[in-house]
Each structure stands twice: as C-alpha cells, then as structure tokens.
Amino acid sequence: MNSLSTLSRARSLRVTTRPQTVLYFAIRSYSGVATTCHGPPNFQRRSSPLTYTTKRPISSTPHPQIKEYFPPPENSAVKEVDSAWAHPVYTEAQVQSVRVAHREARDWSDWVALGTVRFFRWGMDWVTGYKHPEPGQQLSERFKMTEQKWLTRFVFLESVAGVPGMVGGMLRHLRSLRKMKRDNGWIETLLEEAFNERMHLLTFLKLAEPGWFMRLMVLGAQGVFFNGFFLAYLISPRICHRFVGYLEEEAVLTYTRAIQELENGHLPDWDKLEAPEIAVQYWKMPEDKRTMRDLLFYVRADEAKHREVNHTLSNLNQAVDPNPYHTEYRNPARDHPSRGIENLKATGWEREDIFS
Length: 356
Ligand SMILES: [Fe+2]
Ligand SMILES: [Fe+2]
Known about the structure:
This is Alternative oxidase. This protein is mainly alpha-helical. It has eleven helices and two strands. The protein has a domain at about 90-100 and about 145-325 and about 335-355: Up-down Bundle (Ferritin), CATH 1.20.1260.140. It has a two-stranded antiparallel ribbon with strand order 1-2. About 50% of the residues lie in helices and about 0% in strands. Bound molecules: fe (ii) ion (FE2) (2 copies). One fe (ii) ion binds near residues 197, 251 and 303.
C-alpha cells in the first residue's frame, strides 16, 4: 500500500471533518516537549495509520496549506528522480543481528575522539532533558520518551550526522586535486555515508515536520559542527574517523533503545504505523516488513555500518591505503569489508586483516 497517498487522503478527510473547536497547539522545542494538543474533552488522538493526525507531530503549519512536505518534482516530463547510490539489500536476519558494541580506546588519539563524543552526548542529553536508563532502572515520568520526543531527537541527530561524510569526502576530493594524486576510492564511501544519513533525515521528516525553533537549532548546530569538523579533519582525519566511529556507537544505542521501547508497548502510536514510501523504496523493504519497527531496524543497521566503516578507516594509513569498501580483492574466498552488512565487524577491521 502506498502510505504516502493513504496519509494524504487521511489529511484531506481530517481537514474537512475536524470540529472547528479543536485547537491544535504545537510547541516546537528540542527540550523534549514536542507537541501539545488541546481540544474538547471528547477529543482523542487517532492512532491508526489511516487517520494518523500526528503524522507531523511537531508541526504547527496550518493543515489546509499542506500538500506534501517535499513532494516529487512538479514537471510533467519527470516521473521521479533516481538516486546514484542504490542501497544494498539487508535481510531480516542481518538487521536483527546488529548489537550495541564499543571499541576500547587504545591510545591517546582514541581517548581524544571518545572524550569528545562523550562530552557532546552529555551536553545534548543535558540540554534536551534526556536520560538513558541503566539496566533495570525505571525513569521518572519527566524522562519518559514519547513518539514525538523520539522523532525530534532523530531529526536533530540525523541533520548533524550527515555532515562528517560530506566534509571528509570534500576534503579528500580537494586534496586529490591539489596534490594531483589518486584518492583510492575513499571519497565515494564518505559521500555515500552522508547521502545515507540524509535519507534517514528525509524519512523521519515524512513523520514530523520541524518548526522554527528546531530549524534554528539545526542551523546553529550545522554552522558550528561543519566548521569544527572541517578544521579537525584538516589536522587529523584519523581521529575524526575514530570520533565518527564512537558517534555511531551512540547512534546504534539510541535506535536500539527506541526499538526496545516500541517492542515493550511504550510507543503505541508506532505499533501499526507504516514506514513512509520514501523508506520502502530506499531500503527496498519487503512487502510484509514495512512497519515503523522494521524501519528502525533498517536505520540501526545503517548506523552499525557507519560504525564499522569509520573505525576501519581510522585504522588505515590515511594517505596511501585504498578504501577497503571499494576494492576488488585477489582472494575472494577470504572475508573482506563489503558495502552490505554480511561481514559486519562492530569495532572495525584492523589494517593487517584487510591487506596482509
Ligand atoms: Fe543516521
Ligand atoms: Fe550514522
């Protein structure tokens, strides 16, 4: 079923039948409270995919003005725009086998990367009022995550996550031009990672349209993070890839927790919610695996792949080693890094395991 058209129908139905007394009131804030709805006492939130009024739960855009948040191109000659990077197909067993993992810091540069990630994580959790529960710990009501809070968190994090791959790819591209040397394939993988993170963002934006406050936060974060990462990558690309590897460890943790909350019945609006069409097409989701839960498994698998790729790239000689993810190996019988997740190594491939 085409979830986009279904939701569009639901929206037009809602606009014509909604009682005038219902007042939608959206608070855009990254501090956790994403949406508050006020209405008459008998007003209830609808949760089936057909009447899912919170498709954009952090929106205050007047509904009659909405058609599609980012619709296909309006050009009679164009049907759809193709992507240059087809996503590798993941099997159900593969996406379910992803685990939270941590690569121990082994030298001072690893500690710099890990310390920076921990500082960012602490700062963001503090600003947004987020608390990660310890095993067996029950959080107070204030720290309970709702569907809206998760979406707000995903949108912000994905808007930041798309930066490092683009900066790394851009700087390696410029270095290749400047030094008149081959790059040995790294640029494609880095740009593909940035593209993949942007697809995560676009997917979640089909479920939640950010307001002005969120947009301001994204703008500020991008301005600071892009420039900071740009300078850091000029100084030490190796530490930067380790930093992204640790950042992706946190991303896997975040999506794992969201999946657990969904499976434990704490996110009822997502129980039967279908994945947006953009996700179905991008991940080539099988017909019986197109729910919000399945989507979270796919996104988490991508984050696990970024975790592996960046830890691996950090283990290599940045100037001379070829990109092991775009390499034809002399001995195909041996396990090697690949674009998919069939040989996923949570803590990355060591240099000697690839090239010796
Ligand atoms: Fe992502
Ligand atoms: Fe990622």
